[in-house]
Protein 1
Amino acid sequence: MLKPNKLGNKNFLSSLDISTEELFHILELAKNFKNKVLNIEFKRKVLGLIFNKSSTRTRVSFQVAMSRLGGTTIDLNPETSQIGRGEPIKDTARVLSRYCDVIAIRTFNQTDLEEYSKWSAKPVINALTDLEHPCQVLADFLTIKEEFIDFKNVVLTFIGDGNNVANSLILCGALLGVEVRIACPKGYEPNSFVIKKALEIYEDKNLLKITNDPHNAVVGANVLYTDVWSSMGEEKFKENKDKDFNGFTIDKNLVNKANKDAIILHCLPAYRSKEITDEVIDSSKSRIFDQAENRMHAQQALLACLLS
Ligand code: CP
Ligand code: NVA
């Protein structure tokens, strides 16, 4: 029976924290958890959740994944804990790691997440920061693998803001050698450090393309992916961003320019009729709800590795 392997890094703060081999291992474990052929238990283990931003999928999929492993979850609401009062991260992290076995954190700055991991004796997981969303892309590549079996010749085109989700797609794409194209308006390109790191990993540097032309970017693509134009915390920029992203909607016209076998992904939550039309989300090409389900299987696999 497949067994979860301990990962080389204690934490999962970034897609860069795992190797290509470890990524394949997590995807394989996730597939086995999904097919119910694995029964691995971490009885009495406790996952702490700290969410400084809202969440439906990440919160619930972590809770269910942990319960499927026989463990429990504590949802630490910053409003009702001392986190919201501004207790220093180094104190919170040291205390929580005396109670919990692993901690998943959703926050704004990647440096705050790093501060938690510095002071926590237990593994820390990035449940989304402004810079990355590495748990999301584990589920995304699981969904892509289910569709295309392997990653050879897969072309993933992301149309939207080059922030957290796009950054993690780029890094994971580099680990897997998948062609990743990012189509975004000028000024919304992915993080330059992420691009630099990805180019260090890619054997074929031509597999990463950043463009401002969504129409060209979808030609030959097998996966079309989008995310909200205004992320959590950017509500005040919404009106301006809606204007800047005009022409970057995934609609039927754009889908028709992609490969015939193309599937549609969206991390959700969506602003229907902004970054993607109703028709496309609900079309037969959409794998968006399988992708959402896969958050749970991928995180169950990740937790099993981190707790091993
Ligand atoms: N995709 C995602 O992370 O969704 P939530 O914000 O609902 O967790
Ligand atoms: N980019 C989005 C992702 C939501 C899952 C955000 O940060 O709000």
Protein 2
Amino acid sequence: MAEPEPVATSEPATLRLFFALWPDDATRDALNRTGKWLHQHWGGRRMRADTLHITLAFLGGTPADQLDTLFACADSVRAEAFELVLDQAGYWRHNRIGWFGASQTPPQHLDLVDKLNTELKTAGFPVDARPHVPHVTLLRKSLGGEIPACDPVRWPVNDFVLVKSVTESDGAHYDVVKRWCLDK
Ligand code: ATP
Ligand code: MG
């Protein structure tokens, strides 16, 4: 007897996922202005405003049927809201990325990353062993150079999100899958 045809679904079986801080509109505008400023100095390809974020934990290709387990990991994270002040541009030569980061990482940020990674590791997801450097990627294929002074951006961090990354001809597009509030 012939095998039944697989049922077509609109979602692929594997999703490219990451947890992130996702800026509110005012923070996004400010980060985008910093991107313009940095681009004047270092060139390269500016990230589109709608892509700007800070990755907290990168999962990569993940079977779609693990989404509920991922949601449960994030549900278990109890962490506090905080203000993140971004004030320091940086450049990574190995991947030619120009980014914007924090000269002082708030302890609440590190606590959030730690708690999330602990939950993910316990559930068997791959976690990044490298120390976490909070950064917003602003430029790709950039030349870098002398680091210009940048106006600080004050980012009120009240939640974190799970994001799906989809690669299209004009670069990666990101969709927020779900959002979790931090304690006030
Ligand atoms: P593309 O890879 O298509 O050029 P992208 O790097 O923006 O686009 P993803 O590779 O899906 O998109 O990455 C999503 C986010 O996760 C980005 O912030 C990226 O820097 C980060 N990221 C990607 N790979 C890793 C990794 N191995 N470890 C930590 N963070 C990663
Ligand atoms: Mg990538």
